[in-house]
Amino acid sequence: MLIRFSVENLLSFKERIAFSMLPGKGTLKKEHKTLPVKGVAVLKTSVVFGANASGKSNLIKAIAFGRWLILKGTLVNQPIEQPLFRLDAKSRKANSRIEFEIQAKGKNYAYGFVFNKKNIVEEWLYELSKNGETKIFERKVNTEKPFDIEFLLSLNKSIEEKQFLQFLTKATPDNQLFLHEVFTRKVKDNVSNIDDLQNVLDWFLNSLKIIFPDDKYKEGIKSEVTNNENLQSIYKKLLYYFDTGIDGICLKDVELAKIGIPEEAFQKIKEDLLNLKSENARSMLSTPENTYFIFKEKNKIKAQKVMTKHGVQGSKEIELFDTADESDGTNRIIDIIPLIIDLLKDYKVFIIDEMERSLHPNLIYDLFDFFLSNCENINSQLIISTHESSLLTQKLLRKDEIWFVVKDKQGASHLHSLDDYNVRFDKEIRKDYLLGRFKGIPRLGNRYELNALFEQK
Question: Domains in the chain and their CATH numbers?
């Protein structure tokens, strides 16, 4: 679970801002809070509102950038692609900062780093508890002791393990996170106890899912849908519920040559699949027209295309459609259905930018209502940015689940919660938001000056 995220001097965030999933003092909708981990409960949903270019998407991009540095890292001898705040002379020369506070494997952690284009200046991982914090490791450049890994050394008793950890700190490039090195160098094979590092890495790798408007949920339409009757039934019921007119989905074998994959991309996919030991390994490929699964079967590379099923009036036959033949809204629903299924499996954190794209307002509202109505015993989080003001109601959300992003005159984004305002629990807030009370709406210019411009001859 995400507890809190803070960022400074990155994208449109000049000063340090904090986005928090910690509950406020409100006592309503207790089912919207997760079960406490070491005394800390968090909220299951959050909705971020704001005008165009206010910084809503930048908040999610900052989270995604942090995840990218951890899992993908920077190439050797290459600068860190630091998208710092560019509208202030001092900020252009200053360091950036990112910190995640998360819950993973029954523990609370704070992991963060300070960096610039050349190197990682600081990096830290702490376990948080009611009694204080335990330093797992800390890194500070230009000091007598750049790495403090005493806690990790104390957990691993053999000389070989200690030497491996010490070597790893010295081998970590200046432009690379230590956590990334742990991820890529298979440390677990050489050191017996790095559970805290593994817990945090597992959260970024398997729990945190970030989806932008043009993304497909990559764990999306499961390949098992063809031979898993239960999964087929779930898809069919949800497609019917969302009024798509589709009777189900299936996978159809296709010739690789007809997909039109560039040769370089195809060779990379082929190489990756053939190197994997599992016969169940699959790669998903999306084109503007269709979605394909490319997989290995008896050391041969094959492909299947996602198709939708439609009933034919006056016949028992089923007509198959390409996904390109479906509307944008229907394709968006097809992408979201597996997201809903995974969200209700527990311990997932979905962060979605502009979730409402191509979807009817009633459907967005109902998706949130569906999740919140079925999540009482589930610890997952759904966090979105949106313009969809129908979600701005305390019938659906708590005050501490509603956030606003505002950009000041200098172009810097700031973040605040509805919980900061003295709003009664029974007050409908949508109208006040559209009138500008909570900020986060466009500041339109002078209409008379605009009219005069077009009246000129």
Answer: 1-213+354-444 (3.40.50), 223-334 (no CATH)
